[in-house]
Specification:
By secondary structure, the chain is an alpha+beta fold. The chain is 16% helix and 21% strand. The strands form four sheets. Strands 7, 8, 9, 10, 11, 12 and 13 form a seven-stranded mixed beta sheet that branches. The protein has a two-stranded parallel sheet with strand order 1-6. The protein has a two-stranded antiparallel ribbon with strand order 2-3. The termini are far apart. About 10% of the residues have low confidence.
Length: 316
């Protein structure tokens, strides 16, 4: 793997995004601009997956300054370390190593049940048999702790309700006069940060099924009880808020997170808003959290939640 990824770094100074930004922008229709807006390669500079120590390891990323993030920007001294977590070895949800002769992926297409098509728009580059992060350098090669080379797909259900007083009236913010939105948030066990209760899309699984499954696993301990029918109906419809790249601390030069975020809003608070919440799966805690500018969430989750706030015209 080291020699394959080493050649990848040598080509980094000349790599371009080859129209990915244009393809992503062209896919946005004027009538659905909010839901389909993308973070664009060559414009957006990821931050949370640069510099510092890689998660769940003692591997330090090679420094990547702002002026050297994009592959189109020359960085002749770029020599990032290779990191492949041992937790990936032998796991059914993880790809084989890049140098394994049995690993013959179909990049940029549906590979059996594994979807290797990027949500970003356009095709990602393959250099020396390895995918290249279209958003630029991260200071580390290999997969880190991500299971797939290239895009790793997740689904994030943004479940919201209006904050209400004891009499059931919606509470307005004293300064803006707008309604205060609450989201169902979990505290991640791996890093202690608050986040949207999402998770990885299993091979062959529909995103809609992932959204419902992850909410049940992380906020109701996978047991809806007598509310199972109501939960099923509630998650039957939602509004897509975002589909694309995630500035995730686990990203590397060769593997990165992408998500589909869908808002499920309980306007009256009479459905999911009244469900008892209890943490399960990989969540340490779960609660209804007031949404606002001061709230700090995991990875790009704050940006996703802000899109919901704008759509519902809530206080921020």
């Amino acid at each position: 793997m080291a020699h394959v990824l080493g050649r990848l770094a040598c080509a980094a100074g000349e790599l371009g995004v080859r129209g990915a930004a244009a393809a992503a922008a062209a896919s946005c229709s004027a009538g659905n601009e909010l839901a389909m807006a993308r973070i664009l390669p060559g414009i957006f500079k990821h931050n949370r997956c640069r510099n510092g120590v890689y998660p769940q390891s003692d591997v330090r990323r090679y420094p990547v300054p702002d002026e050297s993030v994009f592959w189109s920007q020359t960085y002749s001294d770029y020599q990032p370390p290779v990191h492949e977590s041992p937790i990936l070895h032998g796991k059914p949800w993880a790809d084989l190593g890049a140098d394994d002769p049995a690993f013959k992926p179909k990049w940029n297409e549906l590979d059996g049940k594994v979807n290797r098509v990027s949500f970003i728009g356009g095709k990602y580059e393959i250099r020396d048999d390895c995918p290249v992060n279209p958003f630029g350098r991260t200071g580390i090669r290999g997969r880190g702790i991500l299971g797939r080379w290239g895009p790793n797909h997740a689904a994030d259900p943004v479940v919201t309700r209006w904050k209400r007083d004891e009499s059931g009236e919606v509470i307005l913010h004293p300064d803006s006069g707008k309604r205060i939105l609450q989201m169902c948030a979990i505290e991640r066990q791996d890093c202690g940060e608050w986040a949207i209760p999402g998770g990885m899309v299993d091979p062959g699984e529909k995103v809609s099924a992932t959204l419902r499954r992850e909410f049940l696993e992380e906020t109701m301990d996978n047991d809806a009880g007598d509310e199972a029918g109501a939960v099923e109906q509630f998650f039957a419809e939602g509004t897509e808020i975002y589909k694309g790249y995630v500035d995730d601390p686990r990203n590397t030069d060769c593997a990165w997170m992408e998500t589909v975020a869908v808002n499920f809003h309980d306007e009256t608070g009479a459905v999911v808003g009244r469900f008892p919440l209890h943490a399960g799966d990989d969540a340490a805690k779960v609660r209804w959290m007031d949404v606002g500018e001061e709230v700090k969430l995991y990875a790009s989750h704050s940006n996703i939640v802000k899109r919901v706030v704008d759509m519902l015209e809530a206080d921020w």
